[in-house]
Write a structure and sequence with these properties.
Blueprint lengths: L10 H6 L4 E10 L5 H9 L6 E2 L12 E2 L13 H4 L4 H16 L12 E6 L5 H14 L8 H5 L3 H10 L5 E2 L7 H14 L5 E8 L4 H9 L29 E9 H6 L6 E10 L12 H14 L6 E5 L6 H20 L4 E3 L2 H4 L6 H15 L1 E2 L22 E2 L5 E8 L3 E8 L4
Parallel strand pairs: 4-5, 4-6, 9-10, 9-13
Antiparallel strand pairs: 1-7, 1-8, 2-3, 6-7, 8-14, 11-12, 13-14
Helix pairs in contact: 4-7, 8-14, 11-12
Length: 432
């Protein structure tokens, strides 16, 4: 029989002692790996998943590289007929969710459907479907299109499909906060469980933005790197020669669970989600404030929510997109919150987008997984391609080689998105 929800007998005590939320399963699909362990080992080894693009003709584009997942076969995770009725972002989300569900050891017998939620977001949604359908209608000079085009392009369909697949009848939603989406999705799931709306939540984000239209837009905005040479060396967060980000596709999914529920079913526990904070710059659609003040507000809020001090954080997985303005602003935010510890190198920071590229809305979910693994193994992944020091970026960014941690109890992940959205998560060591 499913584990049934037991109502609290003392709401006052429940208010004082919010439910603890742990991570019991994870799944990843990325250009750097399609399972947790290969992905993690590639990160620690400082490998890059960035290559020349093959999905579309890049001849006329100033940027010709990205984080493609070339060997992904959705039919390894989804029946062929169903996969054909999904946009690629949904295929990626469903596949990573299947990994996470199985990794957590979940079954219909150990989670109650009405207490099982989903929070899976995206930044661009089914942009590939939209582009394909417009081209097809123009080519055939018709107003007819694929009857599944609407459910394929909608941004909530990753969450909807996952809920159907795993019979999750509790709260379900799709967060859309640009490049903060994945972090906000995990934070939203955290609060769902803390607020006693669910016992288990499938949380994360997915993105499939490697299309001609998407690239044209980001190139026009001069957000992407136009750097020539070896694609693996182009994404270089905090380096003086950084000139923009490298776009990637992928999905990161975590199973968040009430600690008592996880313990009762004998689940393995990777770690605890202890804090979540968010803020808005309210200054510009795409440019952060140079002093990093908006992101600093979110960091401070996450620390307060976790009930810890800045001194407790051993490592930060930075948003670190490799843009000149963004990396400098994030450095300033870290200095505001962590002061002398950051300046003296006692706090480690790295930009793993140097290896994964920027998965837009999915990046925060992927980086949440990285933070959990950092705590599990007490190893911090590097920032590769960091060769030329930038006076504006003067912290310890773990250049080029992974670093061992010593008794790290808490780590932080930060994200910032177009529209001024900032989101920060804090993870703690396993409760096992």
């Amino acid at each position: 029989m499913p584990l049934t929800h037991q109502k609290e007998t003392c709401p006052v005590m429940n208010a004082k002692q919010p439910r603890r939320v742990v991570v019991t399963g994870m799944g990843v699909i990325s250009s750097l790996g399609q399972q947790i362990e290969p992905f993690w080992q590639a990160l620690l080894a400082g490998q890059s998943g960035i290559r020349d693009l093959t999905f579309f003709d890049t001849t006329e584009y100033p940027c010709k590289i990205g984080g493609e997942i070339r060997e992904f076969n959705p039919e390894d995770y989804i029946p062929k007929k169903e996969a054909r009725r999904m946009d690629r972002f949904t295929q990626l989300a469903m596949s990573a969710a299947r990994m996470a569900y199985e990794d957590a050891g979940l079954t219909s017998d150990n989670v109650e459907a009405d207490r099982f939620g989903v929070v899976v977001g995206t930044g661009a949604g089914g942009i590939g479907t939209i582009e394909d359908q417009v081209f097809e209608m123009q080519r055939k000079n018709t107003v007819k299109c694929n009857p599944f085009s609407v459910p394929m392009m909608l941004c909530n369909m990753g969450a909807g499909r996952i809920a159907i697949e795993f019979n999750a009848k509790g709260p379900s939603t799709a967060v859309i906060t640009a490049c903060s989406t994945g972090t906000d999705s995990v934070g939203t799931a955290l609060r769902m469980i803390q607020n006693d709306e669910a016992d288990v939540v499938i949380a994360g984000a997915s993105e499939a933005p490697l299309t001609g239209l998407s690239f044209a837009g980001f190139c026009a905005a001069r957000a992407l790197s136009f750097r020539d040479g070896d694609p693996t060396t182009v994404s270089r967060p905090f380096d003086a020669e950084r000139d923009g980000f490298v776009m990637s596709e992928g999905a990161g999914i975590l199973i968040l669970e009430d600690y008592e529920h996880a313990k009762a079913r004998g689940a393995k526990i990777y770690g605890e989600v202890t804090g979540y904070g968010r803020s808005t710059d309210a200054i510009d659609l795409v440019r952060p404030p140079a002093d990093g003040s908006g992101l600093a507000v979110a960091m401070r809020s996450a620390l307060r929510n976790a009930g810890i001090s800045p001194d407790d954080i051993a490592y930060i997985n930075a948003h670190a997109t490799s843009t000149p303005l963004g990396d400098a602003a994030e450095t300033n935010a870290i200095k505001q919150i962590f002061g002398d510890r950051a300046m003296s190198g006692q706090l480690l920071v790295s930009g793993t987008k140097s290896m994964t590229g920027h998965l837009l809305g999915a990046s925060g979910a992927l980086e949440s997984i990285i933070c959990v693994l950092t705590l599990r193994d007490q190893k911090a992944p590097p920032t590769i391609n960091l060769e030329s020091p930038d006076p504006q970026c003067d912290l310890d960014y773990i250049p080029n080689t992974a670093r061992d941690l010593s008794n790290a109890r808490y780590v932080m992940s930060s994200s910032a998105g177009f529209g001024g959205h900032n989101a920060v998560l804090i993870f703690g060591q396993s409760l096992n």
